[in-house]
Amino acid sequence: MSGQSNGSSKDLTALKSNVDVVVVGAGFAGLYMLHRLRCMGLCVQVIEAGSDVGGTWFWNRYPGARCDVESMEYSYSFSEDLQQEWNWTERYATQPEILKYINHVADRFDLRRDVLFNTRVSSALFDEATSRWTVSTQSGEVIKTQFCVMATGCLSAAKPPEIIGRDLFKGASYHTGLWPHEPVDFTGKTVGVIGTGSSGIQTIPEVAKQAGHLFVFQRTPTFSLPAGNRALKHTEVQEIKQNYVDLRQRARVSPTGVASYPLPTLSALEATLQEREVAYEFRWQAGGTAYTRTYKDIMLVAESNETAADFARRKIQSRVSDPVLAEKLTPRDIHIGTKRLCLDTQYFETFNRDNVSLVDIRSTPIQEITEVGVKTSDAEYKLDALIFATGFDAMTGAILNIDIRTTSGLSLAEKWRSGPLTYLGLMTAGFPNLFMVTGPGSPSVLSNVVVSIEQHVEWISDCIQHLTKNSCTQIEATQTAENNWVAHVNQLANATLFMNANSWYLGANVPGKPRVFMPYVGGVGRYREECTAIANNGYTGFQISGSTKT
Ligand code: NA7
To answer: 224 in ligand 1 pocket by Cβ < 6 Å?
Structure first.
């Protein structure tokens, strides 16, 4: 294994200046894209900002970082040899184990030689006359390409909080999404954590074990369930591996991309109170986010959702000894699951420790960050270290950090000013030969993202193969198809409770970002069927043209 080099120097041997496809990003999406395209005999250049492969798992190295999809399912299915030879050790893999896996994949398929590391793409310009993209990097490299694939990830643009004085703090500060490569030792230190989403909930119990004192600055209490993580037994791994092909196929056609999740047929309101208690207890004990799939309408009907939320609230309260503190940690004004449901290991119990204090910044808001700590409306907390677990400019942040435009003057940032507009989350009208992997308008973050990545990568590579076989040089989503798709995505989302929460799914965590529900809620299986039918029908909704633009 070539390891996780943390150097800043570039290996320019990887750089080609004229290629068939540029892929931006070397995470799960970019690496599989490279592998597929290379198998088709295409010349590919991957460009990656980090110093090694891994994408989100390269950057999010904070203590306690762990996937919330079970490891046997959160892995590639495209190679039977790969899935048979790799051995996951825990039900939910840690960040180091996932990074080790993705490094193994890079080595096994010899992928690194086509990746230019330590290089951030700054712009991509489509030349209407030649039907080719020119991709430029911050460090001055220029690459011409026929196709451009944004494998930039949905949760890769870290979002520091917009708090006055944020950069004044003189102690050590960290963002969970940009964690240092060296271990950080908090032993004996007074530490603050701002943010109680998935990243905060995972990091808080770990930091609490080391810190002299930990202050948790909570704006919104979070629904979190015990993950029920444990070591995997050799026998159960072998059993899954014997049926892997079947399991993967069930995942592909399922709503969530997770084969082991239930397919409920009953409304929560059709069950009696006692039946619901049994059902929720079962799911609670089983662990995992399948809790909101106990009944079919938990994400659709407020009254049904409330039954699940009420049970979850009581569970939270049972985990915290001090009832006043327990109440502060209990979400009251939000439907469960409409902000991403978190999975934790001892999160709520951590507040029973003497060295952990909750600072409720809803009642006493943060006024500023000072040189020495965090000042709220009623106190100043002096800190040695401050951790921002404040999330990401999700789904569009990484793409829009690149200046994408065409020679006719159209810019993606302008086009998406009121929210992302795509056809299938794969392409956007006006930008030919530009693909997105798990783009807005696709199931992406509402699914087991590896399953969604594989589906997109396979669709894109099949599409490129179709164009090549038919001597076509260009594909573009039509405006009509895009309009219809956006309307469909919105219509589905509007029928759910997701629309009621201030979530990052809606862009609500980024001041000024348009409030548009970005992922497709219709489910992985249904979405896949739609994409396959479109391709089989000769790419309905796309305009395909030859070497001379028609
Ligand atoms: P999230 O889920 O966006 O959580 C961010 C947290 O930070 C959340 O508790 C926010 O409170 C809080 N936050 C954000 N900005 C501020 C400011 N300015 N002041 C105080 N608190 C703030 O990000 P994560 O990294 O935890 O998880 C993102 C996804 O990554 C996760 O869903 C998984 O899919 C993996 P708020 O709720 O907005 O009041």
So the answer is: no
The answer to whether 191 and 174 are in contact (CB under 8 A) is no
Q: What digits encode the pLDDT tens for the residues 227-263?
A: 999 999 999 999 999 999 999 999 999 999 999 998 9
**Cα 161 to ligand 1 centre (Å):** 9
User: 291 CB contacts (<8 Å, ≥6 apart)?
Assistant: 225, 280, 283, 284, 308, 312, 341
Distance CA 1, CA 11 (A): 17
CA distances from 88 to 100, 228, 342 (A): 11, 16, 22
Which residue has the CA at smallest separation from atom 23 of ligand 1? 391
Backbone torsions φ then ψ of 13, nearest 5 degrees: -60, -25
Q: Is the CB of 340 under 6 A from ligand 1?
A: yes
Instruction: Give the number of the atom of ligand 1 that is nearest the alpha carbon of residue 195.
Output: 7
Return the best residue to mutate from 390, 395, 505 for the ligand 1 pocket (most ligand atoms within 8 A of CB): 390
What digits encode the pLDDT tens for the residues 42-92? Answer: 999 999 999 999 999 999 999 999 999 999 999 999 999 999 999 999 999
Q: Which amino acid is at 33?
A: M
496: left (phi over 0), alpha (psi -120 to 50) or beta: beta
Atom index in ligand 1 nearest the CA of residue 219 equals 39
Ligand 1 mean position to 154 CA, how many Å? Answer: 14
H helices present in 137-221, as ranges: 198-210
Q: What are the chain's domains?
A: 13-158+394-545 (3.50.50.60), 160-222+339-391 (3.50.50.60), 262-334 (no CATH)
Q: What percent of the chain has pLDDT over 90?
A: 96
525 in contact with ligand 1, CB cutoff 6 A: no
- Index of the ligand 1 atom closest to the CA of residue 504: 3
* Chain-centre distance for alpha carbon 182: 24
Check residue 232 and report its DSSP letter.
Answer: P
Ligand 1 in contact with 203 (CB < 6 A)?
A: no
Strands 190-194 and 213-218: parallel
Query: DSSP letter at 348?
Result: H
